[in-house]
Each structure stands twice: as C-alpha cells, then as structure tokens.
Amino acid sequence: MGKNGLWMIFEEGFNVTKDNSLNTSGRHQLTGKVAIFLKSGSYLEGAWNRNCTIQNSKNSKPIKLQETPILQKQFANWSLEILDFEWEPQNKHLSIIAIDEVGYCEINFFCEELWFCWNDFITDAWFQDWPKTVIQKD
Fold first, then answer.
1. Which of 58, 75, 123, 133 would suit a FRET pair with 90, their CA atoms being 20 to 30 Å apart?
2. pLDDT digits (tens, 9 = 90+) for 4-27
3. Segment 58-72, tens digit of pLDDT
C-alpha cells in the first residue's frame, strides 16, 4: 500500500494477448516484472469460494461451497494467481478472480485509475501455440 494508492507486483510478469492494443507483436506475449497501480485505491472486500460449487459425479447435484471472507490484512502480503479481472472505470471498481492454496477467490477494489506498468515482452505466452480448439474425450 502506497501513499497515493495500492501497488500490485507481479515478479513473474503476466500474459498480454495478441488482441491487446499495447501488444503489436501479433503473438500472445509474456512481460517481464509488472507493477499495477490502483490510483487512490482501497480494498473493498473479498471472499474465497464465492459462487463456487462442487459436484461428486456427473449425475449428482452441485453443492454450493461456503463463502469465507478475506480480510484486508490477509491481502497485504498475499501470493496468488490472477485468473481474470474486470475493470469498470465508470464505477471506479476493479474485481479480480484468483486462486491460491486455499481455493478460488474474488477480490474487489475501489480506484480512480488503473495503471499497468511493464518494460518489455520477454517471450511468448505459455498458451501461444496451443490449438485453437480443444477436443474433450469422455
């Protein structure tokens, strides 16, 4: 947490898809170390297992998992994998879907602006040469 907002540091970088306007390579790329700055940012709330269910077999009924709140003090030195995010500039709201050793979680922030800061792309993203369609066998 900084003086004017929140910083998120991604030591291993993150993947930038080829359709992102900041990626002109024509390929999905991995950045070097990344910082994301949430200007005037503040932690709103979060929870593990939000909207999560388990299903024991194909024919069984899904069971909703119990949601567990995430406290701000837990978030400060947290290491997690970001799966997806949604930035709503009109509402000044950032929502992150992630996974850690506990499970899936959703984390919500308020921020005036969202800045992505990285120097360069270092290699192709892990999914660059995956097939366009995945065939699932039962």
1. 75
2. 888 888 888 889 899 988 889 999
3. 788 888 888 888 887
Per-residue pLDDT of 99-130, as tens digits, reads: 887 788 899 999 999 998 888 899 999 888 88
Question: What average pLDDT does the structure give for the chain?
Answer: 86
| Alpha helices (H) in the chain, listed in sequence order | 72-75
Distance CA 35, CA 30 (A): 14
Q: Do residues 36 and 8 touch, judged by C-beta distance below 8 A?
A: yes
Q: Residue 93: CB partners within 8 Å, gap ≥ 6?
A: 44, 87, 108, 109, 110
Q: Mark residue 23 as left, alpha or beta (left: phi above 0; alpha: psi -120 to 50; beta: remaining).
A: beta
